[in-house]
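Lab manual, section 2.4: Encoding a predicted structure.

Procedure: take the sequence of the chain (276 residues), apply the prediction step described in section 2.3, and record the output as structure tokens. A sample record is shown.
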Amino acid sequence: MGQIVVITGLADGMGRHVATMLAKAGHSVAGFDVDEKGIASLASELKSIGGDHLLETIDITDRPAILKFRDQVLARYGRVDTVLSNVGIGFFSPFEEVHLEKALKCLEINVIGAAAIFQAFLPSMRERRAGKLIAMSSLVGRIPFPFESIYSASKFAVTGMMVSMKYEVEPFGIQVALIEPAQVSTTFAAKIHVLPPENSPYRDRARRFIERDNELIKTAPTPPVAAEKIMKVIEAEKPAFFNQIDFMSSFFLWLNQFLPKSVRDAILVNHMNIKV
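Recorded output:
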């Protein structure tokens, strides 16, 4: 018997590939995204695969709509086995020049958005004493990168939230896991890579960072490859808490455990080509 899997942010990228893989594997997919056209095309794709699905166009910040969606899902399927919080936006800027209202939007979507979808389905999972809560974090949720202070803050928050939640919900048979990609070959980074103004003291290093990031993205895992790793976590009987998509994430996290901070910092600065 297949799982009932809820996914946020599934109209494009990794979320979409996970949804189609789930359908092909015989699981049912319920999810939403703010991208109306993307949801419509995904619905057609899932219909052609033959998988059962329930898709809606919802903004992750619309909490009443999320609760209504939850009621629809539970009324239709009677249960939810896995919730994957995949929705998120990036944020790139020297910290000194961060637009704080835009930063607040990033935190609202990335952190409170994840909290909202988990909180919505947690009571039904607790009553059944079964389920998985999986959040899309990032390498920068444990190793912050320069010019990504706000994005790093949002992913640190997601990681901390999941670590804390794990202690609370495990006694009810609910498993908690994190996915921690460094980079995936998508347009995610390109959407946020905006150079600081010409008079910015950070412009040159930010430019070098962007150029290096663009180079790394060329050899990064593709969305289908990333989706396969996520599928393994969804289908695992006992998934690990921390799950990396790519070798670079695993390597940097391993180094982070053993090397002195000064050495780790030097490696990061040289790796991203922003040495002064």
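Check your result against the sample. The CA atoms of residues 158 and 164 lie 10 Å apart.
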